[in-house]
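We emphasize that the prediction below concerns an isolated chain of 320 residues; any contacts that depend on oligomerization or on bound cofactors are therefore not represented. The input was used exactly as deposited, without trimming of termini.
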Amino acid sequence: MRVHFPVAAGGVRRRPDAVVRAVDGVSFTVAAGETLGLVGESGCGKSTTGLGLLRLVEPTGGRVSVRGTEVTALRRRELRAMRRQLTMIFQDPYASLDPRMTIGSVVAEPLAVHGLHRGSRARRHRVGELLELVGLDPDHAHRHPHEFSGGQRQRVGIARALACEPELIVADEPIAALDVSIQAQIINLLEDLRDELGLSYLFIAHDLAAVGHLSDRIAVMYLGRIVEVADRATLFARPAHPYTRALLSAVPLPDPVAERARERIILRGSVPSPADPPSGCNFRTRCPAAFDRCAVDDPVLTLRGDGHLAACHLPDDAAG
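Result of the prediction step, given as a token string:
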């Protein structure tokens, strides 16, 4: 999938030959009941990938397929029906809830849109079930968002995402706006819901520690592209891409002695503009191990082991 945006060239004029390559050809699969973590620095295209998957922004190219149905080819009415199976938890629990609506109305809205649980009594009962499922008191359905904490508001957002009994939930940095003390509670809730309801997640975050706790597999993204994919244990034990190794070096270790002894990898420079990416490997301008070939050849994801993919010219033992 690709999502490119035109570059404004002063006022409302746009240069047809200039685009921001927010998502520049990502490919992955999510199996039933699986959590795929999507991790990377801010601005690498993670959230746009999630929005493109749901067609909340239209992909420029590529395809999204759910159980053999191509989402990118669906018309408006067909897409609305498909969105019962594909929902989203948004990053900001303060901005994603309408302050004029009660939380009961927020959770009931998807039911009304899709014509589920018809009748006020049946709908109220379903809303109560959903609030209880996420750890909220059903008797508080008449309250407004400002009467709840950030963590409680995010639980409301999760209840809304669950309303139509989806198969896949795109969780777009659902803990980034929360206090550290609350983040673990939300991750544990998502894990419990996945196991209880058989959900699949695309879990988007910039924190590898949080991603590692919840995800079965992890895809690492840099400047609009996926540079490494592996199961959680393999990625943490044997990262094959220099960018992944740099991200892992920033994850605190529970052992103070090991934490003090290990080497931190500090990336030089800043992330290049997605409107003007480097030639060859996108990461070469910051890579501590870049060499001449990296400026010419664009590496593709290649198999490094059982299900372990990496886009790097270096062999596994030379990527750090």
